[in-house]
Structure formats: structure tokens, C-alpha cells
Amino acid sequence: MPMYVVGHKIPDSDSICGAIALAYLKNQIGEEAVAARLGELSPETAFILERFGFEAPEYKTSYAGEQVYIVDHSELTQAPDDIAKATIVGIVDHHKLGDLTTDTPLECWIRPVGCSNTVIKMMYDFYQVAIPKNIAGIMMCAILSDTVIFKSPTCTTADIRCVEALAEIAGIEDYKALGMEMFKVKSAVEGTPARDLVMRDFKDFNMNGNLVGIGQLEVIDLSVFDAIKAELEADIKALKVEGNRHSVLLLLTDIMKEGSELLVVSDDAELINRAYGKTPVDGKVWLDGVLSRKKQVVPQLQAAFA
Question: How many CB atoms lie within 10 A of CB 205?
């Protein structure tokens, strides 16, 4: 019986590319594996897979009775709904340790780096398995995406070295130019429904018993949201009610200005001030230098709930 390698709900490029790369590695070392996904591809991820000649991994939402290798998270809220009925055989991640638990021993590769694909590159090196050119390409792109082309505070020397090595394998001379192409794809929001944009990179977190949803849209110019910001604000209000969430936050991240405008709806009017020392005006506040949900948003918010 093969293991299924799968990332989080509402998968991003790291989740999808990591599932493909890790499944290939596992098969090469004699462990049968199949890459899977829990949701639709984002425009950026579709661009990456097409660029390097990949089809989307198998769409699969039920894993009861299966062996599962989790990629890019360890959170119960982000896992398959029936994960308690599956056997988790491994986790590869670069986030905080979440609340997934297991009944049996498992393999864990968790490192404080900018991207899960950086950790997967380390796994390839450990097992001394050669990385195919096309897989190197998607791994490289995932790291560029997660580290915001090395601008994110989550970026480490390991991420940069892995991108350089993967670019050489993939035959990509100007990887930063390819990274900008990816972010231009992310920035094309015209004509996309507000709900699709809000959910493009959205994660739910359990914070001291409170369900908090946090979305992020990374673009090269925030002006692309000028005509639709009111729709985005209305949609996060609706999303809060629909999911019985305590709070919903949406980060509109400008990778060139290196900061984020935060849109927020919450049951706690003082939450954002406690977390970030700033008070929203009409549900909006600018957070200078904030690019990373993982490092600059989630920890401060969790502390505010403590």
C-alpha cells in the first residue's frame, strides 16, 4: 500500500511542489509513494508546474485507512478532515510544531528555514539521491515563493544555497527573474471573485480555543486592490460568520515596499493592538516590514490570545 504525500488545505506552491518532490524521493529509496493535494492549484502553482512540465498531483480529500506523509504543516485544522483515521508516517515542515498527534512512531524533518522544499533538498542530500532537472525547478520556485525571493525574514542561508544548487540542476541562469515572473502571476487579480482571492492562500489556526483564519495575497503593487478592497473586506466578514471564526485577517503584502496592509474582522476590538501595537482604522492597518505570516503574524497573534 503506497503512502500519500500531501500538504495542507488550500495548498500553496510549497505544499504542492513539496508533495511531488518528496513522493519522487520516497519512490527512489524503495518506499512507494503518491503525491496528492487537498485543493485546487493557485495561479502561481499552476504556472510553476506548467513551466516544468508537471500535471497537478492527485486530488484526494479522504485518507481513512491510508498511510500519509504530511508536508508543509503539522496543524489539525490544515490536515485532511479524516486524518485521525489515517496513519501519519512522517512530517516535513518549516513552521511551528502544531497539534497533530500519532499513535505510532513517525519520521520528522522539521527545520527553521524559509520553505519545506529546502528541508526536502536536505533529505535528497541525506539519501544521496540525484534530483531530476524538472523537480529541481519546481523545488527552486517553491523556495523563491515562500521566501519572497529572499526578502522574507524567514529566509536563511540554507534557503539561498538550496536555490542556487537547484537552479544549477534545473539549468536556470536568472532565478530571480523567474521569481518575479511568478509574482507577476500572483499580482494578476483583475476579474477574480473576492472569495477566490481571500481563499487563495488561507489557513485556519486554533489559538487558545479560538478559530482564527489568516489569508495572504502577495503582489508587486498594492494598487491592484484599489477597485476591489471593499469586496475583500465584505468577504472576510462573511467568512468569519460562515466558519464561526473568532477573527479573520487578510494580509495584502507589497513585496516591493516590503510591508503589508492588514484587513481584519474580530470579536476582540483590542486584538490587533495587543498583537502588533497598532490600532486598525476602519478595519485596516499598515504593518511596515511585515512579509511573513509564519514569523511576523501568527506568533504575535497567538501571544495576544494567551
Answer: 22
79-113 pLDDT, tens digit each? 999 999 999 999 999 999 999 999 999 999 999 99
Evaluate the CA torsion angle 35, 41, 47, 50 in order and state its sign.
positive
Helix (H) or strand (E) holding 51: helix 43-51
Q: Cα separation of 79 and 269, whole Å?
A: 30
Quote the cell numbers at residue 81. 478532515
Which residues are registered as beta bridge partners of 247? 212, 266
Crossing angle between the packed helical segments 13-28 and 116-127, to the nearest 10 degrees:
10
Q: Which helix (H) or strand (E) holds 293?
A: helix 293-296
For the entire predicted model, the pTM comes to 0.91
Residue 61 amino acid letter: T
Spatial distance between the Cα atoms of 114 and 156, rounded to a whole number of angstroms: 6
The burial of 218, by beta-carbon neighbours within 10 Å (0-12 exposed, 13-18 middle, 19 or more buried), is given as buried
Closest CA to 179 of 213, 202, 147: 147
Closest CA to 92 of 123, 66, 126, 65: 123
Distance separating alpha carbons of residues 57 and 126, to the nearest angstrom: 25
What cell numbers appear for 115 in the block? 520553505
Structural domains present in the chain: 3-184 (3.90.1640.10), 194-305 (3.10.310.20)
φ, ψ of residue 202 in degrees (nearest 5) = -125, 135
36-56 pLDDT per residue, tens: 999 999 999 999 999 999 999
Amino acid at the residue 107: E
Chain centroid offset of residue 101 CA: 21
Instruction: Say if strands 3-6 and 67-71 run parallel, antiparallel, or are unpaired.
Output: parallel
Which residues have a Cβ under 8 Å from the Cβ of 228 and sit 6 or more positions away? 189, 194, 197
